[in-house]
Amino acid sequence: MVSISNPVSVSVDTTYILPPSLIPAADAHNVLIEDFTGVTCTNCPGAHDNILVPIESSNPHGRINIVELFVTDFPQTGPNVGELYNGFRDTVATKIENSVYTSLVVIPIAGIDRMPLGTDGLNNTQVKSSSWTSGVNGRLTTTDALNLSVVSSFDSASRTATIVTKITYLDTTTALQNLSVVVVEDSFTDLQEFPDSVAWYNYNSVFRGLVTAVPFGDPISPSLPLKEKGRVCQKVYSYHVNAAWKSKHCRVIAFVHGDGSQAGQHVYQSWQTPLAP
């Protein structure tokens, strides 16, 4: 059975100002895709394999950051009889669903940078698979007002990951912003329901846990309501990695987004790195 998200992390914050000559240009925008899927959803593997995989493979590594979310409160999230991982269902994934996206209207469905790109009224941050490609392509051309970078190291003896995140502001802002840091794991094989069969299937980018607070992440330097151009905010997390997780198969995906007062929406930038390089 997949273990429920690990809540144990400690962060240390620092901040400083870069001189004007050292303020970098904006990095290319990386797109966050939060894909709600399920092991008894017959259309989900096709949507992933025929839409998300081509989107990811047609862009440079790191431009597309996919998180596969298996919630506990939707009928098509499983599990199948005889499967190994209880449908990958996770209570924290469910809190993200209910707090950020409200109730799911259908699966497969995804959030793209938590932007209102869907057509389902109050649930318009939920984007149906037919619109994933156009939604992602539109976001890839975004020019960001901040840069984000993430590096991780891993001590196998203590099973502690040290995750260093750095946000560099390229323009002055008073926006309320949070940082979320997610762990995903690749290379699972388990049973998946298809339109005409149940068969073994390879799963990647499976949501494993939030390093940051559930569900809206951590405020970025909340004592500084105004972030000047050149302001750098660094958060260093010490995160105990669950013993059931294969560290070499795990990646860290971090993203800056609106705080909880904005329903956690609007991802400004995202970044990924191996958990244990």
Task: Give the key terms.
277 residues; mainly beta; 5-stranded antiparallel sheet; globular; disordered N terminus
What is this structure's SSE topology?
Layout: E1 9-17, E2 31-36, H1 44-57, E3 64-69, H2 91-100, E4 109-112, E5 127-128, H3 132-140, E6 146-155, E7 160-169, E8 177-185, E9 188-194, E10 197-203, E11 206-210, E12 218-219, E13 231-240, E14 250-258, E15 267-274
Parallel strand pairs: 2-3
Antiparallel strand pairs: 1-13, 2-4, 4-5, 6-7, 7-13, 8-11, 8-12, 8-14, 9-10, 14-15
| Alpha carbon gap, first and last residue | 25 Å
Strand-pairing-aware structural class: mainly beta
Q: How many H/I helices? A: 3
Strand % is 35-45%
Radius of gyration: 18 Å
- Shape designation: globular
Oligomeric organization of the protein chains: single chain
Described by strand count, sense and barrel closure, the largest sheet is: 5 strands, antiparallel
Query: What is the residue-mean pLDDT, rounded to a whole number?
Result: 93
Q: State the order of secondary-structure elements, H for helix, E for strand.
A: EEHEHEEHEEEEEEEEEE
Determine the fraction of residues in helical runs and give it as a percent range: 10-25%
Provide a descriptive summary of the structure in words.
The protein has 277 residues and is mostly beta strands. It has a domain at 28-143 and 178-220 and 243-271. The chain is 12% helix and 38% strand. The chain has 3 helices and 15 strands. The chain has helices at residues 44-57, 91-100, 132-140, and strands at 9-17, 31-36, 64-69, 109-112, 127-128, 146-155, 160-169, 177-185, 188-194, 197-203, 206-210, 218-219, 231-240, 250-258, 267-274. The strands form 4 sheets. Strands 8, 11, 12, 14 and 15 form a 5-stranded antiparallel beta sheet that branches. The longest helix is centred in the first third of the chain and has 14 residues, at 44-57. The two termini are 25 Å apart.
